[in-house]
Amino acid sequence: MTYINFEEENSTGADEYFMREAIKEALKARELDEVPIGAVIVFKNKVIARGHNLSEKLNDVTAHAEMQAFTSASNYIGGKYLQQCTLYVTLEPCVMCAGASFWTQVGRIVYGAKDDKRGYSAYNSSIIHPRTEITSGVLEKDCSALIKDFFQQKRR
Amino acid sequence: MTYINFEEENSTGADEYFMREAIKEALKARELDEVPIGAVIVFKNKVIARGHNLSEKLNDVTAHAEMQAFTSASNYIGGKYLQQCTLYVTLEPCVMCAGASFWTQVGRIVYGAKDDKRGYSAYNSSIIHPRTEITSGVLEKDCSALIKDFFQQKRR
User: Fold this and answer.
1) Other residues' Cβ atoms within 10 Å of the Cβ of residue A17
2) pTM for the structure as a whole
3) ipTM of this predicted structure
4) Cα A78 from Cα A46, distance rounded (Å)
5) What EC number(s) does its UniProt record assign (chains A, B) (predicted)?
């Protein structure tokens, strides 16, 4: 059993713990035949918001996991700024979600798999707020396999 | 009286007509002490969705005029793609809204004032979908004055 020291939120253990929570969200999306992407937002070592991709279900491109999590976290915090929060998301945010993260001034973004085609960093890394810290590659293989398996099954 | 030939949706007259509808939305935002930005989405010469900035009111950065209009239009159309639609918005879309427009594949975006600081084109023009046509500067002075007056009053 791995001991998670929640005093060190930035530790690899805690990051993997919360990324697993994001993966749980991604699995909920997969069950709905949505591209499996999930997100959680953490404040003071506690998950305060969750979201999974619902673009198809809601016929709404704005229903990405991160967007729903931002709205939900702001509701919890009672304000639109999330400087004290960390977003965990299974896939590198797209331009829309990265643009939203800029407005929230979220303190940190931790993502799993890289999205070479539609990830924000393929467009301009400064889309992210200058005070937002980025950590990538947490449980990358698991996060990446989720997406790859989904599209492989689709092609069959 | 100006005659609007609605058969020519791309005509300056029609663009100004629909931009005035977007300005009406911006004025609704201003009444709520929100940054005055408004949007409408037009399908077959008819306004099918409206939105105005509600970021402060809802404590939610994702509540930009365009985002609400996209969600509403997709709901009207019954699908998430808006290739046959035109978005009219008083200010150049930010990265988040431009990123959302990419996913909708909206046919055309017409905006009023340029946003040199936060407009998507300051980051990367290819954020916009390659099949989305862009028209800028429609009723630019009116759209720009709305924003400038708002911030001038705030500074007083």
Assistant:
1) 18
2) 0.92
3) 0.92
4) 16
5) 3.5.4.33
